[in-house]
Structure formats: C-alpha cells, structure tokens
Design a protein that fits this description.
about 25% helix; four-stranded mixed β-sheet; about 20% strand; four-stranded antiparallel β-sheet; 10 strands; 8 helices; alpha+beta
Length: about 220
C-alpha cells in the first residue's frame, strides 16, 4: 500500500533536508485521551474509532470533525476510522479546544517504534481536512517541517500562514486498527489533580506534570 495525495489538495514541495522532520528526532508520539479511558487502554491497547465502538469509553473528539472523518478514506487503503490517530505533539489546536477539561485529560506517550508497524500512514495536517495529504512514513516525514510541528503556538498575523501553521500542528500518524499497550511509555498531565487520578487508574508508567498541556504557560 502506498498512500497518495487527494486531487483536491494544493501542490506540495518536499522540504529541504535541514527543515524536514528526521526520524531520529521523534522521541515519542502523543495520544490525547480522557483519564477515565486509561484502564481500558491498558487492557485493550489504543483502538481505532471503529474498534472502540465495542468498548465503553469517553471521546474528546468534536462531533462535527468525527462526521468528516467518518466519510474519509485513506487513499489506497482503509476508512480513516479504521486507524488509531497519534500526534507528533499534543500541544495543538485539538487539545486547545479542550483546555477547560485539562484536569480530566492526559497525553499518553507512545514509542516511536509504532512507525515501523505495517501500513502506517503520515498526514501533513488534520486527516479530516480536504487539503491534507497522506503518505508513507519515509515520504511523509520529508514533508513535515519540524519547526511548525513542534512550535509552541500556531498563530500568525497573516491568515494564510496561520492556516498553514495550524494545519501543520495537527499532523498525524495513522496506525491501522490498534496499538498494543506495550507501546505506551508514559504520560503527561497538566496538574496534580490529573496525576493523582491517572495513578488511581492503575497507570504504573512514568507520569510527568507539564503545564504546557493545559495552556496555562
């Protein structure tokens, strides 16, 4: 399977090697979830949207975005809802919309070894967008600008640049069907309340409080 770009997407150029994301720079990937889901995740792993329907869970996804994702097919592959979606960095527009819920959320740290799993796809923006391109891991990393992906903020006085930066912050790693629990290497929370709640769920891996995920810093 070799994902291709949707015809509606604007032209895209490969970045210079000095600007593009390098595999060795990816120390972890991120999965945003309500803490109440963690016990189930530790048992079943991270599940695609379609597989998660069979498991009791709470979603933080926006309904209107899920409607778009439900209609999306990864070019040359499966429906988008058949993939687990990870972010390169969870301080992004999606988490920003849920900042008021930071005491009930955590960011699971996922080993970059998932990039070596079969049929993994990389997007250069939110997978629900009509302008997002889907690529293999090797090709996809060459089209991601590390400065945009790991930027603290994505705002800009220029509307076109703001759109581009916001899209880049939402770049995704799509893993077919599920990710086993062994790929979880730790978690971030925004405050002590969230840390204590996550620990009560039986989470034994390292938990780090990082206020950047609450947008309070």
């Amino acid at each position: 399977m070799r994902p291709s770009s949707p015809s509606s997407a604007p032209a895209s150029k490969k970045l210079k090697a000095c600007d593009s994301m390098q595999r060795e720079e990816i120390k972890e990937l991120h999965y945003i979830t309500p803490i109440c889901n963690v016990a189930s995740i530790l048992q079943h792993g991270l599940l695609s949207h379609n597989r998660a329907k069979k498991v009791l869970h709470r979603s933080v996804a926006m309904p209107e975005i899920q409607e778009k994702r439900a209609r999306k097919i990864v070019p040359g592959a499966k429906p988008l809802h058949d993939y687990v979606n990870l972010y390169f960095h969870a301080r992004n527009p999606m988490l920003y919309k849920r900042q008021a819920e930071h005491q009930a959320l955590c960011v699971l740290r996922i080993s970059p070894a998932v990039l070596d799993l079969p049929r993994v796809v990389i997007t250069d923006g939110n997978a629900a967008s009509n302008y997002t391109r889907f690529r293999t891991v090797a090709e996809g990393l060459q089209h991601l600008n590390r400065d945009d992906v790991f930027a603290e903020w994505w705002t800009d006085t220029n509307a076109i640049e703001a759109f581009r930066k916001k899209s880049a912050k939402c770049a995704e790693v799509l893993v077919p069907d599920s990710i086993p629990p062994r790929y979880i290497i730790g978690a971030y929370v925004a405050c002590e309340t969230a840390r204590a709640e996550l620990a009560r769920c039986g989470f034994k891996l390292p938990i780090r409080i990082d206020e950047q995920f609450s947008f309070l810093v």
